[in-house]
Every structure is written in C-alpha cells, then in structure tokens.
Amino acid sequence: MTNYKCLTSFILLFPFFMLSQYETQRFELISSFDNIEIRYYPSSMMIKYDGGKDSSSGFGSLFRYISGSNDLNQKISMTTPVHMRKTENKTTMEFVLPAEIKAKTAPIPSNSSLELYESKAQHYAAIKYGGYTNLEKEIRLSEELISKLKLNNIVVNGESRVLVYNSPYRFINRSNEIIIPIIY
C-alpha cells in the first residue's frame, strides 16, 4: 500500500514540477486594474504555424521543429505559453523560442508551412482565466477585456490572442490568458 501512496503522490505532484521546468515568455508588468494587467513584452523569437481554417496539425508541426526538424537538427527547449489566434478564416499557433535563441542563430524550419520571426516589442492588456480554453470563453473574455479597456480610454491596436500555459494532460490548476495589443 505504501508504494501505491507514493505513486499516487508522484502522479498528482508531477504536473507542478513540470511547470517549473519550462522557460516562460518574459514581460514587464506596467499596471493592473479590475483583473486586467497592462504588460510590456520585449521582442522574442517565435515559430508560427498558419493553418488557415485547419489547426489540427499546428502543434505537431511546431513540436517537430523544436524536436530537431530544422536546418541545424537542433533540439530546442519547450517554453510557455503557446500563442493561438482564431478568426473566421484563419487559425494560427505559435511557440515562443527560448531567450538565448536570437534571429542570427535561430534554426530554420524544415517545414515550409512554419514561419520563424522576431516579434516586435509591444504593450498588451491581459486577462487571466483557468480551466481548459474554448471558443465561448475566448469570445466572452475578449469582449470583457475590450470593454474594460475602452472604459479606461486605452486604445486596442490589433487582434486578441489566447495564451495557453499548460499541456492538455494537466487537468488541475490550468492557466490561460487573453491578450490584446494596445497603444500605451
């Protein structure tokens, strides 16, 4: 019975240990109000999959890139969050590359459907939420975020995106965010 308790404890605590092993995209918290954060994100290297209306192979294509399917056969550490954007005509998924990877040293993807680029430094407004993300939550929270920004005279400067911080296999304490670029 003792081995069973140890195994159960390991299974329950493993996701907490795994979370700390991933580098998280850096940002500076500028201010917060009414459950909204205003952040400054410096530029970072990103790898993007543009699936049009189909996002089903996005994660796999991105994961193969960081697993070594690139011109240097270089394995790259997984980071958080995964960025996702959905519109009626387009679905994209992006991985943030580790901070030590720069434009001059970033491996070129072998898959031509992936785009390697350096994001521009930008201010964003963010709202956090838990659980698994879904379209209903994303729409509701995007509308709430935009409404609160308008009430505070903050100008929206682009489309919202969803940030997912956890693997789909993590069932508890999930963390997601909606962010939207702003003029600040």
Unreliable runs: 1-14
Assign the CATH architecture of the largest domain: 2-Layer Sandwich
Rg result? 18 Å
Distance between the termini: 58 Å
Task: Encode the helix/strand succession as letters.
Answer: HEEEEHEEEEEHEEE
Q: In percent, how much strand structure appears in the residues?
A: 25-35%
Q: Shape, please?
A: globular
Mean pLDDT: 88
CATH topology of the largest domain: Phosphorylase Kinase, domain 1
- Helix amount, in percent? 10-25%
Number of helices: 3
The level 1 CATH classification of the largest domain is Alpha Beta
The largest sheet, given as strand count, sense and whether it forms a barrel, is: 10 strands, antiparallel
- DSSP strand tally: 12
Question: Can you walk me through this structure?
Answer:
The strands form two sheets. Strands 2, 3, 4, 6, 7, 8, 9, 10, 11 and 12 form a ten-stranded antiparallel β-sheet that branches. The chain has a two-stranded parallel ribbon with strand order 1-5. It folds into two domains: 25-42 and 121-184, 2-Layer Sandwich (Phosphorylase Kinase, domain 1); 46-119, Multidrug-efflux Transporter 1 Regulator Bmrr, Chain A (Alpha-Beta Barrel). The radius of gyration is 18 Å and the shape is globular. A hairpin with a 2-residue loop joins strand 2 (28-33) and strand 3. 24% of the residues lie in helices and 33% in strands. It is α+β, with helices and mostly antiparallel strands and 184 residues long. Mean pLDDT is 88; it is low at 1-14.
